[in-house]
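Student:
Attend to each token:
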Amino acid sequence: MERREKGNQKGFTLIELLVAIAILAIIAVPLLNAFLMSVRTDAKAKVKMRAATAASNVMEDIKSKSWEKLTEGKSPDASGNYSYSVEESVDYKNFTVEVSISPNQGEAAAYNREELAKLYSIDGVHDGIYVQSQELNRDMAKQLKGDAYQTSDAFSGIRRNMKVDIEKKPNAQGFRVTVNNTYSFAGVSPISDDPEVIYESQSAAYDLNNIYLLYYPMYNSSAISLTETVTIENTDEVPVNCYLVCQNYDASKQNNVRLQLRCLENKRDDYKENCITRICSNLPLTKNGKGLWLTYLQGNAGDTFTDQKWAEASRTNNAKKILDFHGLANEQQSDWVYTVTVKAHEGRPGEDKYDKVLATYTSTIEK
């Protein structure tokens, strides 16, 4: 009978086992470290992402509120800034978001200190809007004075007339409103910018409600030297309210602001009771030779009226009453610009993790 050999049943020796364990440990420990680091990093990233969400939520809530609602019940510090904190929870994680609101930083501070005329419900369909370029005065002064132009007295001796024509189109096919400026300087031919159409109607119906004239003053007039005028010609009798708004009004230079508004309408007997053009302005009426000087004349389109004629008109009628003048002076602008910074902390004040800022957002908001 044949004997079969048994299979090789030899196992690992203790030394081999220990070597295998050692090799496994050498490989596994760094892998485990990397895994743990990945878990920790992922956890931190999630916390930061939630903190960013918390900060973003608070910022969006701030943007949705009016300035009055935003500052309701809060007191500003000595610099006029507001600071407070809110609690925000994201995915069951609690964060404290610090909010800092400043209307007194950089350009926002200068903007918010200005008192501008409040203009309500400007309608692009039924209103004509003219906004003078801030550089127009300076560019025209350079052209008139050439090498003699100096920044310190750039507008000395220069006169400007802004002319507003409200006229019917040929064959009674509607009407249009145009604005253009003419500048003059002694010994030099006057120069003008191109007429700008600010409103045009395609029908005979008078569907124009308001004209807004936003201009920049030159601050070079005096009680005895009138250098700025606005002439409104409305001889076609289009009923309209005209808002004359001085931009960047500087109270410290008010002694150099004297503007004559000249309104020309068609001849009729009942002009005092049925004036077609009404005037509103943020300039105060003339007092001690400064401010807005209203004058009113009647005539026909194309008539020429001298400065002396306009001066006589101001002494022979009550232009304020005839033009139904309404002041817009000392109005605070409806817009408000401010800088908001939000910082999200994990947890609540006093907790160990609170000191570290996990997310910061800064935004400039206009309301």
Observations:
- Residues 67 and 367 are 7 Å apart (CA to CA).
